[in-house]
Amino acid sequence: MKPIIFQYRSRKLHADDIAFIKALIEQHFLRGRTYISCELCKHWNWVQPNGKHKEYAARDLLLRLEEQGLITLPPRIRAKNNLKPKVFVQTPLFVRRPLEGKITEYENLTIHVVKDPQERYLWEYLFQHYHYLGNPRLVGEHLRHIVRIGNQVVACLGWASAAWKVKDRDRFIEWDETTKRTHLHLIANNVRFLILPWVKIKHLASKVLSLALRRLSDDWNTVYGHPVYLAETFVDTARFKGTCYQAANWIRAGKTKGSAKRGNRYLYHGQPKDLYLYPLQKNFRRFLDCDQG
User: Fold this and answer.
1) What is the top-level taxon of the source organism (predicted)?
2) pTM of the predicted model, to two decimals?
3) Structural domains of the chain, ranges and CATH numbers in brackets
4) Concatenated DSSP letters for 169-206?
5) What whole-number distance in Å separates Cα of residue 189 and Cα of residue 141?
Protein backbone atom coordinates (compact mmCIF):
# COMPACT_ATOMS: atom_id res chain seq x y z
CA MET A 1 0.00 0.00 0.00
CA LYS A 2 1.33 3.42 -0.98
CA PRO A 3 1.41 5.91 1.92
CA ILE A 4 -1.20 8.69 1.66
CA ILE A 5 0.53 12.06 1.54
CA PHE A 6 -2.62 14.19 1.47
CA GLN A 7 -6.38 13.58 1.34
CA TYR A 8 -8.82 16.02 -0.25
CA ARG A 9 -12.45 15.07 0.27
CA SER A 10 -12.56 11.47 -0.99
CA ARG A 11 -9.41 11.72 -3.14
CA LYS A 12 -6.27 10.24 -1.62
CA LEU A 13 -2.98 11.62 -2.98
CA HIS A 14 0.22 9.59 -2.96
CA ALA A 15 3.80 10.68 -3.67
CA ASP A 16 3.45 10.10 -7.42
CA ASP A 17 0.30 12.28 -7.48
CA ILE A 18 2.17 15.15 -5.80
CA ALA A 19 5.07 14.68 -8.23
CA PHE A 20 2.65 14.82 -11.17
CA ILE A 21 1.07 18.05 -9.88
CA LYS A 22 4.52 19.61 -9.38
CA ALA A 23 5.47 18.71 -12.97
CA LEU A 24 2.17 20.15 -14.24
CA ILE A 25 2.81 23.42 -12.39
CA GLU A 26 6.37 23.64 -13.75
CA GLN A 27 5.18 22.98 -17.31
CA HIS A 28 2.44 25.66 -17.21
CA PHE A 29 3.87 28.04 -14.59
CA LEU A 30 3.57 31.14 -16.79
CA ARG A 31 -0.03 30.36 -17.79
CA GLY A 32 -1.33 30.84 -14.25
CA ARG A 33 -3.36 29.00 -11.65
CA THR A 34 -6.65 28.79 -13.52
CA TYR A 35 -5.02 27.13 -16.51
CA ILE A 36 -3.18 24.66 -14.27
CA SER A 37 -6.38 23.69 -12.45
CA CYS A 38 -8.12 23.10 -15.80
CA GLU A 39 -5.25 20.90 -16.98
CA LEU A 40 -5.38 18.94 -13.74
CA CYS A 41 -9.09 18.26 -14.30
CA LYS A 42 -8.36 17.05 -17.84
CA HIS A 43 -5.55 14.69 -16.78
CA TRP A 44 -7.57 13.25 -13.89
CA ASN A 45 -10.86 13.27 -15.81
CA TRP A 46 -12.19 15.16 -12.79
CA VAL A 47 -15.70 16.07 -13.90
CA GLN A 48 -19.09 16.86 -12.40
CA PRO A 49 -22.12 14.66 -13.15
CA ASN A 50 -23.10 17.16 -15.88
CA GLY A 51 -19.75 16.64 -17.62
CA LYS A 52 -18.15 19.97 -16.68
CA HIS A 53 -14.72 20.03 -15.08
CA LYS A 54 -14.49 20.38 -11.30
CA GLU A 55 -12.43 23.55 -11.64
CA TYR A 56 -13.39 24.98 -8.26
CA ALA A 57 -12.41 21.75 -6.49
CA ALA A 58 -9.13 21.63 -8.41
CA ARG A 59 -8.24 25.23 -7.50
CA ASP A 60 -9.15 24.57 -3.88
CA LEU A 61 -7.00 21.41 -3.81
CA LEU A 62 -4.00 23.32 -5.19
CA LEU A 63 -4.39 25.99 -2.50
CA ARG A 64 -4.60 23.33 0.23
CA LEU A 65 -1.46 21.63 -1.09
CA GLU A 66 0.40 24.95 -1.10
CA GLU A 67 -0.74 25.64 2.48
CA GLN A 68 0.87 22.33 3.50
CA GLY A 69 4.12 23.23 1.73
CA LEU A 70 3.76 20.37 -0.77
CA ILE A 71 3.74 22.55 -3.91
CA THR A 72 4.48 26.12 -4.97
CA LEU A 73 1.92 27.84 -7.18
CA PRO A 74 2.70 30.68 -9.60
CA PRO A 75 1.83 34.22 -8.47
CA ARG A 76 -1.78 35.28 -8.96
CA ILE A 77 -2.42 36.98 -12.29
CA ARG A 78 -5.26 38.96 -10.69
CA ALA A 79 -5.40 40.23 -7.14
CA LYS A 80 -7.21 37.93 -4.73
CA ASN A 81 -10.70 39.34 -4.20
CA ASN A 82 -12.85 36.38 -3.11
CA LEU A 83 -12.54 37.33 0.55
CA LYS A 84 -13.82 40.86 0.02
CA PRO A 85 -17.49 41.19 0.97
CA LYS A 86 -19.72 42.17 -1.92
CA VAL A 87 -20.84 45.76 -1.55
CA PHE A 88 -24.42 46.45 -2.61
CA VAL A 89 -24.07 50.11 -3.50
CA GLN A 90 -27.25 50.29 -5.54
CA THR A 91 -30.62 49.40 -4.01
CA PRO A 92 -32.62 47.32 -6.52
CA LEU A 93 -36.22 48.15 -7.26
CA PHE A 94 -38.64 45.89 -5.38
CA VAL A 95 -42.04 46.22 -3.72
CA ARG A 96 -41.92 46.50 0.06
CA ARG A 97 -45.60 46.45 0.94
CA PRO A 98 -46.64 44.80 4.25
CA LEU A 99 -48.62 41.61 3.69
CA GLU A 100 -50.65 39.89 6.38
CA GLY A 101 -53.46 37.37 6.79
CA LYS A 102 -53.58 33.68 5.85
CA ILE A 103 -51.94 31.95 2.93
CA THR A 104 -55.39 30.81 1.71
CA GLU A 105 -56.19 34.46 0.97
CA TYR A 106 -53.44 34.61 -1.68
CA GLU A 107 -53.84 32.64 -4.90
CA ASN A 108 -51.10 34.06 -7.11
CA LEU A 109 -48.04 32.56 -5.37
CA THR A 110 -45.28 31.76 -7.90
CA ILE A 111 -41.71 30.44 -7.68
CA HIS A 112 -38.96 30.26 -10.28
CA VAL A 113 -35.20 29.81 -10.67
CA VAL A 114 -33.09 32.98 -10.69
CA LYS A 115 -31.33 33.25 -14.06
CA ASP A 116 -30.62 36.81 -15.18
CA PRO A 117 -28.01 39.06 -13.47
CA GLN A 118 -30.59 41.64 -12.36
CA GLU A 119 -32.63 39.06 -10.46
CA ARG A 120 -29.49 37.52 -8.98
CA TYR A 121 -28.46 40.93 -7.67
CA LEU A 122 -31.91 41.33 -6.06
CA TRP A 123 -31.68 37.84 -4.51
CA GLU A 124 -28.22 38.55 -3.07
CA TYR A 125 -29.24 42.01 -1.88
CA LEU A 126 -32.22 40.65 0.04
CA PHE A 127 -30.14 37.97 1.77
CA GLN A 128 -27.36 40.42 2.57
CA HIS A 129 -29.75 42.83 4.27
CA TYR A 130 -32.48 40.63 5.73
CA HIS A 131 -30.96 37.24 6.60
CA TYR A 132 -28.92 36.90 9.80
CA LEU A 133 -26.20 34.94 7.95
CA GLY A 134 -26.03 37.37 5.04
CA ASN A 135 -25.56 36.59 1.37
CA PRO A 136 -24.28 33.01 0.92
CA ARG A 137 -21.30 32.15 -1.25
CA LEU A 138 -22.69 29.30 -3.34
CA VAL A 139 -20.12 27.06 -5.03
CA GLY A 140 -20.46 23.85 -6.97
CA GLU A 141 -23.95 22.90 -8.12
CA HIS A 142 -26.55 25.32 -6.75
CA LEU A 143 -29.89 27.00 -7.44
CA ARG A 144 -31.51 30.24 -6.35
CA HIS A 145 -35.31 30.45 -6.06
CA ILE A 146 -37.37 33.63 -5.82
CA VAL A 147 -40.99 33.50 -4.64
CA ARG A 148 -43.56 36.19 -5.47
CA ILE A 149 -47.14 37.05 -4.71
CA GLY A 150 -48.18 38.99 -7.78
CA ASN A 151 -45.24 41.27 -8.55
CA GLN A 152 -43.94 41.36 -4.96
CA VAL A 153 -41.05 39.21 -3.74
CA VAL A 154 -42.02 37.51 -0.48
CA ALA A 155 -39.36 34.81 -0.06
CA CYS A 156 -36.04 33.50 -1.37
CA LEU A 157 -34.35 30.11 -1.14
CA GLY A 158 -30.82 28.92 -1.81
CA TRP A 159 -29.90 25.32 -2.68
CA ALA A 160 -26.39 23.89 -2.96
CA SER A 161 -24.45 20.64 -3.00
CA ALA A 162 -24.97 18.33 -0.04
CA ALA A 163 -22.69 18.37 2.99
CA TRP A 164 -20.01 15.68 2.97
CA LYS A 165 -19.97 14.43 6.55
CA VAL A 166 -23.44 13.93 8.06
CA LYS A 167 -23.53 10.69 10.04
CA ASP A 168 -27.27 10.70 10.80
CA ARG A 169 -28.16 11.39 7.17
CA ASP A 170 -25.99 8.54 5.94
CA ARG A 171 -27.57 6.23 8.50
CA PHE A 172 -31.04 7.33 7.33
CA ILE A 173 -30.19 6.60 3.69
CA GLU A 174 -28.46 3.33 4.62
CA TRP A 175 -25.44 3.81 2.38
CA ASP A 176 -21.73 3.21 2.85
CA GLU A 177 -18.78 5.51 2.13
CA THR A 178 -18.22 4.16 -1.39
CA THR A 179 -21.83 4.67 -2.43
CA LYS A 180 -21.95 8.12 -0.84
CA ARG A 181 -18.84 9.16 -2.73
CA THR A 182 -20.54 8.24 -6.01
CA HIS A 183 -24.05 9.55 -5.34
CA LEU A 184 -23.71 12.54 -3.02
CA HIS A 185 -24.49 14.87 -5.95
CA LEU A 186 -28.03 13.46 -5.94
CA ILE A 187 -28.81 15.35 -2.70
CA ALA A 188 -29.52 19.10 -2.50
CA ASN A 189 -28.90 21.19 0.60
CA ASN A 190 -31.29 24.03 1.49
CA VAL A 191 -28.55 26.39 2.65
CA ARG A 192 -30.72 29.52 2.93
CA PHE A 193 -34.40 30.31 3.44
CA LEU A 194 -35.72 33.84 3.84
CA ILE A 195 -39.21 35.19 4.38
CA LEU A 196 -38.96 38.96 4.11
CA PRO A 197 -39.62 40.65 7.46
CA TRP A 198 -42.56 42.80 6.31
CA VAL A 199 -44.42 39.68 5.11
CA LYS A 200 -46.49 38.23 7.99
CA ILE A 201 -48.66 35.69 6.17
CA LYS A 202 -49.55 32.64 8.27
CA HIS A 203 -48.28 29.31 6.90
CA LEU A 204 -46.44 31.04 4.04
CA ALA A 205 -43.10 29.43 4.94
CA SER A 206 -44.36 25.84 4.78
CA LYS A 207 -46.25 26.61 1.56
CA VAL A 208 -43.10 28.03 -0.04
CA LEU A 209 -41.08 24.98 0.99
CA SER A 210 -43.71 22.68 -0.50
CA LEU A 211 -43.71 24.57 -3.80
CA ALA A 212 -39.91 24.56 -3.97
CA LEU A 213 -39.64 20.85 -3.22
CA ARG A 214 -42.25 20.03 -5.85
CA ARG A 215 -40.05 21.45 -8.59
CA LEU A 216 -36.56 21.11 -7.12
CA SER A 217 -35.54 17.91 -8.92
CA ASP A 218 -36.80 19.12 -12.32
CA ASP A 219 -35.04 22.48 -11.88
CA TRP A 220 -31.81 20.71 -10.95
CA ASN A 221 -32.10 18.42 -13.95
CA THR A 222 -32.66 21.39 -16.26
CA VAL A 223 -29.56 23.21 -15.02
CA TYR A 224 -27.16 20.34 -14.27
CA GLY A 225 -28.41 17.42 -16.33
CA HIS A 226 -29.34 15.15 -13.44
CA PRO A 227 -32.15 15.02 -10.84
CA VAL A 228 -31.89 15.06 -7.06
CA TYR A 229 -33.74 12.58 -4.87
CA LEU A 230 -33.35 13.96 -1.37
CA ALA A 231 -33.26 17.43 0.20
CA GLU A 232 -31.44 18.23 3.43
CA THR A 233 -31.20 21.23 5.71
CA PHE A 234 -29.73 22.14 9.08
CA VAL A 235 -31.70 24.16 11.64
CA ASP A 236 -29.93 26.24 14.27
CA THR A 237 -32.03 25.36 17.32
CA ALA A 238 -30.59 28.28 19.27
CA ARG A 239 -32.59 30.52 16.92
CA PHE A 240 -35.35 28.42 15.37
CA LYS A 241 -37.60 25.47 16.18
CA GLY A 242 -37.84 24.12 12.63
CA THR A 243 -41.62 24.61 12.66
CA CYS A 244 -41.98 25.41 8.96
CA TYR A 245 -39.95 22.34 7.95
CA GLN A 246 -42.08 20.16 10.19
CA ALA A 247 -45.26 21.68 8.72
CA ALA A 248 -43.93 20.93 5.21
CA ASN A 249 -43.43 17.27 6.23
CA TRP A 250 -39.66 17.25 6.45
CA ILE A 251 -38.26 14.46 8.64
CA ARG A 252 -36.12 15.32 11.64
CA ALA A 253 -33.38 12.71 11.23
CA GLY A 254 -30.87 13.65 13.92
CA LYS A 255 -28.25 16.25 14.77
CA THR A 256 -24.89 17.39 13.50
CA LYS A 257 -21.79 17.10 15.67
CA GLY A 258 -21.26 20.86 15.92
CA SER A 259 -18.37 21.10 13.48
CA ALA A 260 -17.90 23.10 10.28
CA LYS A 261 -15.60 22.62 7.31
CA ARG A 262 -12.84 25.20 7.02
CA GLY A 263 -10.61 24.54 4.04
CA ASN A 264 -9.66 20.87 4.24
CA ARG A 265 -10.38 20.52 7.96
CA TYR A 266 -13.41 20.27 10.25
CA LEU A 267 -13.34 22.65 13.21
CA TYR A 268 -15.55 22.14 16.26
CA HIS A 269 -17.71 25.18 17.07
CA GLY A 270 -19.96 23.58 19.70
CA GLN A 271 -23.30 24.47 18.04
CA PRO A 272 -24.94 21.26 16.77
CA LYS A 273 -27.92 21.72 14.45
CA ASP A 274 -31.03 19.65 13.83
CA LEU A 275 -30.91 17.68 10.60
CA TYR A 276 -34.08 17.63 8.48
CA LEU A 277 -34.52 15.51 5.35
CA TYR A 278 -37.17 15.40 2.64
CA PRO A 279 -37.35 12.48 0.15
CA LEU A 280 -38.21 13.74 -3.34
CA GLN A 281 -39.05 10.25 -4.58
CA LYS A 282 -40.95 7.44 -2.88
CA ASN A 283 -38.11 4.98 -3.62
CA PHE A 284 -35.36 7.52 -2.98
CA ARG A 285 -33.07 4.95 -1.31
CA ARG A 286 -33.06 2.83 -4.46
CA PHE A 287 -32.21 5.84 -6.62
CA LEU A 288 -29.42 6.90 -4.26
CA ASP A 289 -27.98 3.41 -4.27
CA CYS A 290 -28.14 2.48 -7.96
CA ASP A 291 -25.90 3.39 -10.87
CA GLN A 292 -27.10 6.67 -12.41
CA GLY A 293 -24.87 6.38 -15.44
Assistant:
1) Bacteria
2) 0.76
3) 6-67 (no CATH), 99-289 (3.40.630.30)
4) HHHHHT--HHHHHHHGGGEEEEEEEEE-TTEEEETHHH
5) 10
Q: How far is Cα 208 from Cα 75, in angstroms, rounded to an integer?
A: 46
Cα→Cα distances 190→70, 137, 180, 216, 275, Å? 35, 13, 19, 11, 11
In which element (H, E) is residue 127 found? helix 117-130
> What is the SS3 assignment for 56?
helix
Identity of residue 145: H
Say if residues 207 and 109 touch (Cβ distance below 8 Å): yes
Determine the Cα–Cα distance for residues 219 and 226; give it in Å rounded to an integer: 9
Mean pLDDT for each consecutive 10-residue tract of the chain (293 residues)?
78 91 94 93 87 87 89 82 68 95 94 95 96 89 96 97 91 90 92 98 97 97 93 94 96 83 54 94 89 49
Q: What angle do CA 61, 64, 70 make, to 5 degrees?
A: 105
